[in-house]
Write a structure and sequence with these properties.
about 120 residues, alpha+beta, SH3 type barrels, six-stranded antiparallel β-sheet, 6 strands, about 15% helix
Length: about 120
């Protein structure tokens, strides 16, 4: 399965544990394309997305639906919800996050991970 950094995919989070994400929801691929292209590595790194209102302007990046991103509802990228998932959890691609918003995600990840 081919995935690229910045794409938004529908992800199945079941089975989940404790306070992990649950159900099926959009998620943003943040893993570098070089790692995504490794044939022997069947995982990718994602950020969970949610339709709940943003609580933290630094860690929650608001996303409005657009033709580019393919979303039907406004939501947020939850930059504190970083997961490595099997690509088999990816159901379908919605679209691509706008570059200006991906830059905000990058800044939020640098803050969250103290990079």
């Amino acid at each position: 399965m081919k995935v690229h950094r910045g794409e938004i995919w529908l992800v199945s989070w079941e089975p989940h544990r404790g306070s992990e994400q649950a159900g099926t929801r959009p998620s943003l691929i943040i893993q570098a394309n070089e790692a995504n292209e490794l044939e022997y590595f069947d995982n990718t790194i994602v950020l969970a997305m949610s339709t709940t209102p943003a609580v933290d302007d630094l860690l929650h990046i608001s996303v409005e639906p657009s033709r580019l991103n393919g979303l039907s509802k406004a939501g947020i990228v939850r930059c504190e919800q970083v997961f490595t998932v099997s690509k088999s959890r990816l159901i379908r691609k919605f679209g691509i996050l706008e570059p200006r918003l991906l830059s905000k995600v990058d800044a939020a990840l640098r803050a969250e991970l103290a990079l």
